[in-house]
Amino acid sequence: MHIIKLDAIDSTNSFLKEMIYAQEVADYTIVVAQHQTNGRGQMGTTWDSDRGKNLMFSMFKDLSAYVVEFPFYISMAVSLAIFKTLKALCIPHLSIKWPNDILSADKKICGILIENVIKNKLNSTVIGIGVNVNQTEFKNLPKASSLKNITGMHYDLDEILQTIIKHTKAYSLLLQQGNHEVVKNEYEANLFRKNKPSTFKNAKGDLFSGFIIGVTKYGKLQVLLEDEIVKKYDLKEITLMY
Ligand code: BTN
Known about the structure:
Blueprint: E1 3-9, H1 12-22, E2 30-36, E3 55-62, H2 72-88, E4 94-97, E5 101-104, E6 107-119, E7 122-131, H3 147-151, H4 157-176, H5 180-189, E8 197-202, E9 207-215, E10 221-225, E11 230-233, E12 238-240
Parallel strand pairs: 1-2
Antiparallel strand pairs: 2-3, 3-7, 4-5, 5-6, 6-7, 8-9, 8-12, 9-10, 10-11
This protein binds biotin.
């Protein structure tokens, strides 16, 4: 495993993607930065973080051996790897908010940005992870928090990085061995607001209620609606309000 440690970079995901196009990159090559000047989040958002206080890294994973058809499995595997890491640190009330935010109670403590890369017709992926660790102020982000805010303790970023990598390898191995259902079941068991009455907003801005019952293997959210019909939504179609 190769870890590239950078002081500052625009985005570890962008850096790793450029590397992949320029040269051969081995599985589990990691790029970690103290600071990002253009950290990127899901759906074109930005990811801001105080210098040196949080964990920001990207990891390369070749997908050709297995999950090409169902890339959402890698998203579930990584979410669970982080979940397990934080659970071992005794972070309370952990859950995975679909598709892959990690929450403690209802506060976001980790975001994941997965970007697919196709080079020489081979599929690979860059998995970008931002964990809010020792930062204590989140201006204009009322739904964000950090491990330190939650427990009052200071954490070693490198230790958390190593543990996430270790668990990601273990969950990836499960997938490689064909245990897709084990990963999906564990992911669904830890889904935020699973089987609880929830309110959603559709792409038109209309509110509706239903119960999250799980995900499909393509990563769509399955919601049981009031009329007993189960509908599947992708990320652009639905926002979970509460
Ligand atoms: C999200 O929840 O919107 C995803 C946030 C992902 C942030 C991480 S930080 C390291 C990596 N580099 C980036 O530019 N983004 C990801």
